[in-house]
Structure formats: C-alpha cells, structure tokens
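cron nightly-structures :: item 1 of 1
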Amino acid sequence: MLTSTEVIISEKNLILETGLLAKQADGSVVARYGDTMVLATAVANKATVEGKDFFPLTIDYIEKAYSAGKIPGGFLKREGRLSEKEVLTSRLIDRPIRPLFKKGFNSETQGMVSVLSYGDENIADILGITAISAALLISDIPFEDAVAAVRVGRFAPNAPNSGEAGDIERAGKIVINPCFEDMALLDLSLVVAGTAEAVTMVEGGGLEVPEDVLITAIDRAHEEIKKIIGAENLLREKVGKPKRAVAEVKENEALAASVKDLCVEKMRDSIRIPDKLKRQKTLDGILEEAVKQLTASDPEANAREIAKLFEHLEQDLVRTSIMNDGIRADGRGADEIRKIDCHLNLLPRAHGSALFVRGETQALVAVTLGTSHDEQRVDSLDGDTYRSFMLHYNFPPFSVGEVKPLRSPGRREIGHGALAERSIKSVLPGADVFPYTIRIVSDILESNGSSSMASVCGATLALMDAGVPIKAPVAGIAMGLIKEGEKVVVLTDILGLEDHFGDMDFKVSGTKEGITAFQMDVKIKGVSREVMVGALEKARLGRLHILGKIGEAISEPRAELSKNAPRIFQMKIRADKIKDVIGSGGKVIKGIIEQTGVKIDINDEGIVTIASSDEASLAKARAIVEGIVEDAQIGRIYKGKVKKIMDFGAFVEILPGTDGLLHISQISDKRVNKVTDELKEDDEVMVKVIEIDRAGKIKLSRKEAMKDAAKQSEA
C-alpha cells in the first residue's frame, strides 16, 4: 500500500512515499521535489559480524542518465563507475547519517540513493540525505534519529532581480533550495544537515563571506530541516517497523582494569610526546608488553580485545588531558597553531610550486598552466560542461609511514581535493583576464592532521609563485572539539590524534575578508549555535595568522609567468571576419599553425585565442591574424598584391581577404593606355586608400602613394 507524507519547503511540496518501489529492501522511500525524484533503499545483513571494531556502512549515490532524458556518453553507452560528482555526493550523504546508528550495531549495511528523475530544482544530492534517513527510519535497522538537509544560499548584495511580477528585492536575501538559474547569483551556497535538535553537517563555500552571514544562513536552514524531520517522523508513525535488538556492548571490566593498572602511568607521559612517530612507537611498545603479560596470566584474554581496551584508555587520557589540564598531545594550548614553514619554487619545470609545512603535515603543491585544449569535459545530467580549473589531492601511504598498494583516487582523496578546490576557486581571475586552464596537484608528503587545509595554503603559495593574478591569498585551518557533559573545549589546528578521538572536525578556509569554503562534521548528536560561533571566531583568528605567514613568504603574485608556461593572447574580431581567419576548409588557420607552431582557437563570439610556449611565435601568429581582420583605413598606404587585371584597372589585395580597385587613371601620374603596360598579376605595389563607399568598396591610388613617398624622401 502506498503511504506518503509531505511538507512545503520554499513554496514547493517535498513528498516522501513508500510502499510501491523496492519492497524487498529493509526500508525504501521515494522523495520528490518538483520534477526531481530519488529512490533511497537501506539494507542491513541480519547477522552480526564478530570481531569488527568499526561500523561497515556503505552509501552510494547513483545518477541514472534516463532521469534527465539522456543517453550516456562514451563507447559503452551505459552507466559505469561512479563519477566524481557521485562520489562526492555519496560522501555528503554518508557523513550526517553515520553517527546516528545505535552504538554496538555492526552488521554490514548499505544505503543506495538512485536519481530517477532529474529536474531543474538543483536538489537531487540533498534530497538523498532526507530520503535515506526516511528509509532507515521506517526499516528495522537501529537508526536512532531522523536527519534531513537543505541547500541554503544568499543572493549577492549586487544580485539582480528576476523582473517577474511580485518578485521582492533579492539582493542580500537568504534562499532555501535555490534552483540552477539562481546559483550563479549567490555569494554563499551551503548544504546543511541536522536533526531536530542540532546541526550535524555543513558543507559549502562563498565569495569571501563574513562569519555572521554564514551563521545566519545555517540558522535559517535548520528551521526548514525541522519541518522535513516532522514529515519523516510522521511516515515512521504510519509504516515504521520495530527496530532490531542490539546486544549491549559489555566491556570486560576485569580485563579493562588490568590494562589500566598495567599501562596508564606509562601512557600519561607517552601521549604528550610531540613527535607523532615517536609517540606512536612508544605507545605500541607499551601495548605489546601489556599483551604479553596479560595473555600469559589470563588464558581468556586476546590481543584484539586488549588493543581495543588500550585504545579506549588512550582516548580517555587524551581527552582528559585537554579538558582538565589544558594540555594537548604535542604540548600546545587549545588556541595555539603549529610552526609554519613556506618554501617556494622548488620544482624547476613546474609553472609554480610550493611546499607548505605545518607541524608534521607537508603539502607539496604544483601549478600547471594550459590552454583551452586542456580543459576537462564533464558529461553530467546537467549537460556537457568544461572545467578550466582542477585541484587534485594525493595521499600516498608513506605520508603516514604505512605500506599499502596504490589504487586510483579513493573517496577521501576526491573529497579533500574538492574541498581545497572550492576554497581556491572564488579568488581565481576570470577567463577574460587570465585565459588559462589551471591544474593544481597537492601531494601530501607527511600527514598529522588537516592535510586538506595544508593543500589550500600550498595552492595559494604555488599560484602566486606561478604569477597567477589571484584576487587575494587563501588559507585554511581545521578546528576540533572535545565535549564532556556541558564542558566544551574548541581546538585550533588539530592533530590527527585529536581528529580521531575528538567530537568534531570543522574546516574553514578564506581570505582576510571572509570565508571561501566551509566543512563541518560531528561525531556527537550536534553542536550548539554558541559553540559554532565561538569556533568560527577562533578559526578566523587562526586563518589570519596563517595568512601572515604566507605573506612573509610571498606577498603578491609574481609579475611574470614562468618561462616554461605557455603564452596566451586573446583578441575579439567581428563575426564576419571569422570565416576569413578560418578560411575555406580551415585552410587559413591551418596555414598559420603550420607556419608558427602555435595553437589557435576561435569561438562563435569571435574570440581568437593564440597560445604558444614561444613569445616570438605567438607574436608572429598574432600579426598574421591581426592583418587578416584589419579594416582598410582611408589615407593609409598599403603594400598590396595585384590579384586580377581588368581593362579599366586592377584589383589589389591590400589585406588578407580585402581587395580594392586600382582604377587605370590612378595607376600613374602619366597617361596609361593599357593596364598591362604597368602591372601584371602577382606584382606587389604600394597603394593608398582614397575612398571607401557605403557598400564598403575600396578605391585605391598608386599615383597618390608615389606622391606621398616622394614628399617623405624630400623631407
């Protein structure tokens, strides 16, 4: 039986329904908003997996080409591996869902969100969060609390109004679930997810937006989230199944006490060793000795259980040290930032390079500049698009002292790269100012917390080293949170250890003026508005400190591009001149390319782009193109070529594709009986433009050109 609930969000109905599709899943819900429909399914194995110390949850977001009335591109003509957008959206859905399963539940669980219909509402990704939450709620899977999401944006202060009847002033206004058309007018765009009580995830970016604007937008989003959660809970009341029983997680109290008695005093000092590898080596030694002693004295003890209890003890000690003593693992105070070093121009062949070091985190970042030929073509439900800016993040196993097989970029690498890319994108120059394709690669050489934000800082340094005229430097910082009861400590510039044992990961990047990217994930049931405001202020101060360090290394982009970078020149020509530059069958443009070795592109608007690694070749090609599109000017003397002889005169080409008539009376200052007495085809002659009529026909004079030449020689 079909059962549904609905709620109005931003003047449109959001409908949740179940009972028609995918009925063999533990839970299935179709969410619809306008013409956009997604199917969310949730299935969990009935058997509990023994020995797993993590929750095996997989979330996949899948876009069906038919949902947008498209046939997939490529040879196979069917959907294949997940696209970058699908991977990022899968992560987006996973993050607010994962903390809300009942503790102790560890059956393998899979959530799938399939886009069935793709409308113009720009909502399929965030609709997936609400739909999977609803599917889990009505299932027997022990999912504890409803979560929902909206996209929230702010129209830029200079955003135009739509002009429609009854439309209010939009500039500076907050908007919920903006459509594709409105996205270009926003200076802030966030995906906000949360429960009825608190916000649990935020991700998005802005155009140097102040912190108070961000908080206002999040508050507004949470109001709408509460409405959606009401509809989810109503659906659960109608068709929800009883939840599976989850065995209470019982700790071996006697073994835990033994581990504590044996290890705690040694661990107190060890967790405060500043060097990550030394700290870990010391802790590993303590654990190894404990395992030997405890397994020898207690036949029922096993190494896996001891290691788990040891980790719990380590977590308690790290958190207690911060909460009670105000001392972090590396000895810093809560607001203290690690030592920062910036190195420029490390790679001689790269167009720009930098090494950004913060504590034990290193990001080696390289910038490569290319032409429009290097743009990435993206085949998506929105249609074919082209990316002229890419930031790729790599996290090799040696960066954390591990041995692992190399694979294609995983979800973490794609997600971190997307966050860093969003951080930088808003400060890049426009194509009209800097017509280059830009690729940034961040290779993490050493990691101990916040390598994505190190990538942002390294990218800023490398861009300025490359001479890219960015609007302002960008820095990023990761914040953390330790919460025990009502007591809360916000940590600036967190370590990997603090990320692992903490309650929040809060990344902020931006310029001196404001925020360009923001990402918040929590492991608890949410954070209060007051905590978020305080964390943002501490992040702002930390960002300004890091920007100061960047400024000490390089204060502004270099005046010249690297000698290894291509040179690009752009010019706009009249539409009627495009055919002249291209020539019949591309003959003219191919000839220029063969003659000079440059790359040339011409678009339908008449923008000619010439690219070359050689300044001389670019200048030569530019001169040829300018000559082709140049218009004749009255009074100017040209060196022309006789193209055709007639009884009454000759047609002379004075510019590529531009002929003028040299009448027999204008060939010489003496009488000419026959044109062929003075000229023949392919002769080069100096002529002066004496008239251009309304039809654009050009009249030339050779005798006037000779007179002018004589006057100049006399002078």
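cron nightly-structures :: done
The chain has a mean pLDDT of 91.
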